[in-house]
Amino acid sequence: MPAEIVTTVHGTFGEILQGYTFGAHGFEHFLFTAPVEELKSQARLCPHDGTAKKRLGITPSDRAKALSAFELLSAELGYGATDCTIEIDSNIPVAKGYASSTADILATAQLCIRSRHPETPEPVVHALALSVARQLEYGDYLLHPGVAACAQRSHRLLTAYRTDLRWTLVGVDEGGWVRTEEFHQESPEDLGKARVYAELFAQLDTALRADDYVAAAEVASRSAELHNDRLPKKSLEDLRRIQRDQGALGVCVAHSGTLAGLIFSRHQPDHDLRVRECRSELESCGYSTETFTLKEAQR
């Protein structure tokens, strides 16, 4: 086994836009990722001490899907037993809408390949990692270092964007958790909404290609509003009011999580003041806040 290899996948702050369209193959679900710099999952292999052979393990022990990803990919590639423990070091909160499970799965799947063949070309690593991820759950495409549009139920990349939005997200967690797998099993679909989502998809694609940080935030707000009947955000009214007070560009939410937040951009000349005052106003309403930086692939 080569020298220690660490694989890293970033989490997200919900999604910029999530919905579905209707076409020749019926309803097709999509999302636009909102990866953030501050959150990440890292995976490494640690050999067991001593001479006694042990089974492959994982820590924390509750990361069963990540362990399954490693085992599935090992079997498909014909790798022998691995007398190691997979260590996941993640600061991504679980069951909140930060894509914690997907990040763990993709970091671990990449580790499986990199630990045996570190020189494997990146597109091959990504394809193999996604091949097991889609067997385990719906999820975001997190293998692009910026915003990406993807087919949510297959992890298939639709478009990888290079942008200059310079967003800061001031987020609140409404508490509790959402079991994403169960939530998506009960997802109703509507032809009228599908038409609206198709329009928003086109609008957001145009905005991202043009680095239109204002228009992109407006689409995020519309997505939050459209989804509020599916998973209501009790903070949405407060966020909209504070958006008007502090000149935030829009609202971003986790469509299957407990997160909601306001969007600012470092393109705004008084960005830092707006963010500080936004946090202060949210905290005066009883919310705990965190700030996140949108992770972007540069042009």
What's the quick description here?
The protein has helices at 64-77, 100-114, 122-136, 180-185, 191-209, 213-227, 236-246, 271-284; strands spanning 7-23, 26-47, 57-59, 84-90, 148-151, 156-160, 167-173, 250-253, 259-265, 289-293.
Task: Please characterize this protein's 3D structure.
Helix content is 36%, strand content 27%. The chain has 299 residues and is α+β, with helices and mostly antiparallel strands. It folds into 2 domains: 153 residues, Ribosomal Protein S5, domain 2 (2-Layer Sandwich); 132 residues, 2-Layer Sandwich (Alpha-Beta Plaits). The strands form 2 sheets. Strands 1, 2, 3, 4, 5 and 6 form a 6-stranded mixed beta sheet that branches. Helix 5 runs antiparallel to helix 6. The longest helix has 19 residues. It is globular and about 60 Å long.
Topology of this structure?
Blueprint lengths: L6 E17 L2 E22 L9 E3 L4 H14 L6 E7 L9 H15 L7 H15 L11 E4 L4 E5 L6 E7 L6 H6 L5 H19 L3 H15 L8 H11 L3 E4 L5 E7 L5 H14 L4 E5 L6
Parallel strand pairs: 3-4
Antiparallel strand pairs: 1-2, 2-4, 2-5, 5-6, 7-9, 7-10, 8-9
Helix pairs in contact: 1-2, 1-3, 2-3, 5-6, 7-8
InterPro entries: GHMP_kinase_N_dom (IPR006204), Ribosomal_Su5_D2-typ_SF (IPR020568), Ribsml_uS5_D2-typ_fold_subgr (IPR014721)
Keywords: Kinase, Transferase
GO molecular function, one term: ATP binding
